[in-house]
């Protein structure tokens, strides 16, 4: 009896120490958000297997699934919180996804979530939110691209509002500088470090020429090309994106390893290979430069920070309890 009590006391102390260390690295208990990784363990115990299977299938068909899903999650969370509001289909061209800022979101992101939802509904009807499916799919695409893995907090409910007019001013623009970018992240409870880490998502995916053409041809009245560009990179980009380029032409955002989730994005920044103003200024501005140098030097530090920041991003304005609903179809409200 005496012995058993001593052991259990030691176990409690050990568990507390573990919680403290997890809390420091990344609070996987959901903090005060009301979310937790085990949320569906009783109601849909196969959920994560189903999501991974469907996401892998889709990624095997087209590798752009990776960036498309990751960006979709970011855009969803920054407008009315992580509540799948971005997934609602166009009605009178005034759904969130119809906004000018969202219209370049790749269709493969939406298609991935819809396919996963169909598969999940077959096994656990009416239980799992579209917002949680998107959060899980975002983790899975990062991991499928050889990036980090993390436990995804769950329990979000799907929002009841999706309006194009709600998007204005909420998403960062590629021509923004650090102050403006930081203000947008700060409004969502995300720090400068979170912003630098999350921007590392630009290690995968594409950008249309229109989003950075100004840096190549109309930088300012004295300089045609942004001098923070590496000269050779700017030359290559001018070939890919001539002045009269059509609206559909896009380039890899990470020219070194476009389909691998790694820290090459930061190697690019220190070498003047940042594609957008919003990328390159993270290195030219002293407010964020140190963090860029840290992630340039250590992929491990980048992965740790990215995981922490994705967990924080996943808590932005979430609806829990009786708020919102569990959508049957991710593209439409239930009523
Ligand atoms: C820091 C401010 C950010 C700005 C200004 C920004 C802006 C952009 C722009 C303009 C594009 C190109 C879209 C196109 O031409 O089709 C893009 C692509 C992308 N962004 Fe960001 N972004 C930011 C942060 C983030 C964050 C935090 C994430 C995710 C965690 C993210 C993930 C992506 C991905 C994966 C793509 C590639 C999409 C694809 O290939 O389909 N971005 N971003
Ligand atoms: C996806 O492709 C990989 C590699 O070719 C293969 O091993 C795996 O079984 C495929 N998975 C699915 C779900 O299609
Ligand atoms: C153009 O940009 C360069 C480099 O950033 C700067 O030194 C110069 O003052 C700018 N010119 C004008 C007219 O703003
Ligand atoms: C970036 O990282 C590389 C590789 O670790 C290192 O050699 C280089 O000095 C770093 N550059 C900067 C500017 O910190």
Automatic annotation (TrEMBL):
<keyword id="KW-0732">Signal</keyword>
<dbReference type="GO" id="GO:0046872">
    <property type="term" value="F:metal ion binding"/>
</dbReference>
<dbReference type="GO" id="GO:0042744">
    <property type="term" value="P:hydrogen peroxide catabolic process"/>
</dbReference>
<comment type="similarity">
    <text>Belongs to the peroxidase family. Ascorbate peroxidase subfamily.</text>
</comment>
<comment type="similarity">
    <text>Belongs to the peroxidase family. Classical plant (class III) peroxidase subfamily.</text>
</comment>
<dbReference type="GO" id="GO:0140825">
    <property type="term" value="F:lactoperoxidase activity"/>
</dbReference>
<keyword id="KW-0106">Calcium</keyword>
<keyword id="KW-1015">Disulfide bond</keyword>
<feature type="site" description="Transition state stabilizer">
    <location>
        <position position="71"/>
    </location>
</feature>
<feature type="disulfide bond">
    <location>
        <begin position="44"/>
        <end position="124"/>
    </location>
</feature>
<feature type="binding site">
    <location>
        <position position="96"/>
    </location>
    <ligand>
        <name>Ca(2+) 1</name>
    </ligand>
</feature>
<feature type="disulfide bond">
    <location>
        <begin position="130"/>
        <end position="330"/>
    </location>
</feature>
<feature type="domain" description="Plant heme peroxidase family profile">
    <location>
        <begin position="34"/>
        <end position="334"/>
    </location>
</feature>
<feature type="binding site">
    <location>
        <position position="83"/>
    </location>
    <ligand>
        <name>Ca(2+) 1</name>
    </ligand>
</feature>
<feature type="binding site">
    <location>
        <position position="172"/>
    </location>
    <ligand>
        <name>substrate</name>
    </ligand>
</feature>
<dbReference type="GO" id="GO:0006979">
    <property type="term" value="P:response to oxidative stress"/>
</dbReference>
<dbReference type="GO" id="GO:0020037">
    <property type="term" value="F:heme binding"/>
</dbReference>
<feature type="binding site">
    <location>
        <position position="79"/>
    </location>
    <ligand>
        <name>Ca(2+) 1</name>
    </ligand>
</feature>
<feature type="disulfide bond">
    <location>
        <begin position="209"/>
        <end position="241"/>
    </location>
</feature>
<dbReference type="InterPro" id="IPR000823">
    <property type="entry name" value="Peroxidase_pln"/>
</dbReference>
<keyword id="KW-0408">Iron</keyword>
<feature type="binding site">
    <location>
        <position position="254"/>
    </location>
    <ligand>
        <name>Ca(2+) 2</name>
    </ligand>
</feature>
<dbReference type="GO" id="GO:0005576">
    <property type="term" value="C:extracellular region"/>
</dbReference>
<feature type="binding site">
    <location>
        <position position="262"/>
    </location>
    <ligand>
        <name>Ca(2+) 2</name>
    </ligand>
</feature>
<keyword id="KW-0873">Pyrrolidone carboxylic acid</keyword>
<feature type="binding site">
    <location>
        <position position="76"/>
    </location>
    <ligand>
        <name>Ca(2+) 1</name>
    </ligand>
</feature>
<feature type="binding site">
    <location>
        <position position="81"/>
    </location>
    <ligand>
        <name>Ca(2+) 1</name>
    </ligand>
</feature>
<keyword id="KW-0575">Peroxidase</keyword>
<protein>
    <recommendedName>
        <fullName>Peroxidase</fullName>
        <ecNumber>1.11.1.7</ecNumber>
    </recommendedName>
</protein>
<keyword id="KW-0376">Hydrogen peroxide</keyword>
<feature type="binding site" description="axial binding residue">
    <location>
        <position position="202"/>
    </location>
    <ligand>
        <name>heme b</name>
    </ligand>
</feature>
<feature type="signal peptide">
    <location>
        <begin position="1"/>
        <end position="25"/>
    </location>
</feature>
<dbReference type="InterPro" id="IPR002016">
    <property type="entry name" value="Haem_peroxidase"/>
</dbReference>
<keyword id="KW-0964">Secreted</keyword>
<feature type="disulfide bond">
    <location>
        <begin position="77"/>
        <end position="82"/>
    </location>
</feature>
<keyword id="KW-0560">Oxidoreductase</keyword>
<keyword id="KW-0479">Metal-binding</keyword>
<dbReference type="InterPro" id="IPR019793">
    <property type="entry name" value="Peroxidases_heam-ligand_BS"/>
</dbReference>
<dbReference type="InterPro" id="IPR010255">
    <property type="entry name" value="Haem_peroxidase_sf"/>
</dbReference>
<dbReference type="InterPro" id="IPR033905">
    <property type="entry name" value="Secretory_peroxidase"/>
</dbReference>
<keyword id="KW-0349">Heme</keyword>
<feature type="binding site">
    <location>
        <position position="203"/>
    </location>
    <ligand>
        <name>Ca(2+) 2</name>
    </ligand>
</feature>
């Amino acid at each position: 009896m005496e012995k058993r009590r001593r052991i259990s006391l030691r176990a409690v102390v050990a568990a507390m120490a573990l919680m403290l260390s997890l809390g420091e690295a990344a609070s996987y208990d959901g903090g005060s958000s009301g979310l937790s990784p085990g949320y569906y363990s009783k109601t849909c115990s196969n959920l994560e297997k189903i999501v991974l299977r469907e996401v892998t299938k889709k990624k095997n068909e087209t590798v752009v699934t990776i960036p498309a899903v990751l960006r979709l999650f970011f855009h969803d969370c920054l407008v009315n919180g992580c509540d799948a509001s971005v997934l609602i289909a166009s009605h009178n061209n005034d759904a969130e996804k119809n906004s000018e800022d969202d219209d370049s979101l790749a269709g493969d992101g939406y298609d991935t979530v819809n396919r996963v939802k169909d598969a999940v509904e077959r096994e656990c009807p009416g239980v799992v939110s579209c917002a949680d499916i998107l959060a899980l799919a975002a983790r899975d695409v990062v991991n499928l691209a050889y990036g980090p893995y993390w436990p995804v907090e769950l329990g979000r409910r799907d929002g009841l509002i999706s309006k194009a007019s709600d998007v204005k001013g909420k998403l960062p623009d590629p021509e923004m500088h650090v102050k403006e970018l930081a203000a947008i992240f700060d409004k969502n409870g995300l720090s400068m470090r979170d912003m630098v880490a999350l921007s590392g998502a630009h290690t995968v995916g594409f950008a249309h020429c229109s989003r950075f053409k100004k840096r190549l041809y109309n930088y300012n009245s004295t300089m045609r090309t942004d001098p923070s560009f590496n000269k050779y990179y700017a030359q290559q980009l001018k070939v890919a994106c001539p002045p009269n380029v059509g609206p559909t032409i896009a380039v890899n955002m990470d020219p070194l390893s476009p389909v691998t989730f790694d820290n090459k994005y930061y190697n690019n920044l220190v070498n003047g290979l940042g594609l957008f103003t919003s990328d390159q200024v993270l290195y030219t501005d002293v407010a964020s430069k140190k963090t860029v140098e840290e992630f340039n030097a250590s992929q491990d530090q980048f992965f740790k920070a990215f995981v922490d920041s994705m967990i924080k991003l996943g808590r932005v304005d979430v609806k829990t309890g009786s708020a919102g609903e569990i959508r049957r179809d991710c593209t439409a409200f239930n009523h």
